[in-house]
Design brief:
about 375 residues; mainly alpha; disordered N terminus
Length: about 375
Amino acid sequence: MSVPGAVKLRSRLAQKLDAEIASAAAVPARAAVLQVQRAILWLRHGRVAEAREELNRLHGRALVHPRADLAAWLHLAEGLMAYYSAFGGGARERVRRAHVMAQAVQLPALRSRCDAWLALMAFVDRDIDGLVTHAQAVLAAPADNGAACRVASALGMAWDLAQRPSEASTWYGWGRRAANADGDDAALSALLYNQMQMRALRIRHAALAGEPGEAPAVLLGVDSIGHFDDAVGGSARTDLTPLLRAQLLTVQGDFAAAAPLLEAHLPEAIASGLARTGGSLLADLAWCWANTGDTTRARAMADQAAVEVLAEDSPHCDLDERAALHARLAQVYARLNETGLSTRHGDAAQVARADDAAQRRLWATRLGEAGLGTPPR
């Protein structure tokens, strides 16, 4: 079995936490809280097994020596464990519980970090009300770099979703400065990935809508994220960057290169919580197969994706992904000479694009009215 204390990460934040834990050896209650924070850092760097072992140990300690502050930090840690393993799966409820406890026992730094994570989770759930509420709470609280870099990521992506790249860029930049100030390489990597992801999605959606857009030369930036993660000791979701690359390769028309990446990384991604966006990636895979001559599998996968899209009907679903899925299916069925099915999905894509445009306008309005257009100075 691995020894949690043996985990070494090449980041200033990791070194700082190790030093603080050593200094707090004579105050076990303080050391335990710092150890939870370190386990969260391990989790964010992809060291899930070590984080799980350490959190189990700390849960045991909390039962022997109950303390509300330790329990609150453990709830945050478990919420993030659920978030990284399933992008949901009870994550918001655990973080909300940590938030309530932090407020009750007057832990402002923990409360602010919970607000920041809840803002990020609200973005994932396309919950603009929750995003605004928690982002405003972070910005009204005393400055905290750990909270700032995460709320900046949420707001950057929110403005990107609203197709306002200028506002998005200012938030990403603010977040990078906060992450650098903390020496938090995992947060910096996440910011870089999120910004690149939103940029790549703009390219993909423009191509599917037949609109002029940026060339997929952004692929070089996707590669750089992986190189950075390797340098600092890993990231929480190593399957995501290859999927982003596969989407851009598909847009570029390099189907022979895109298909193996989708085949290799889609199973893990869908199993661990990306089912909502996985449907459009299944359609991408069908498109790759249709263009490489594997028409039988292409038809079967298109039919499956056509059923998957029926689940994209909740108020908080990814409207842009629903539009992408229908648009890609229209292309696949056209290539397979299924004119009726192609027309049906093409029409559905137009409806989804109209819904997406309405959502973008709503988000831009809500964010602007909430005073979230620019970061604090």
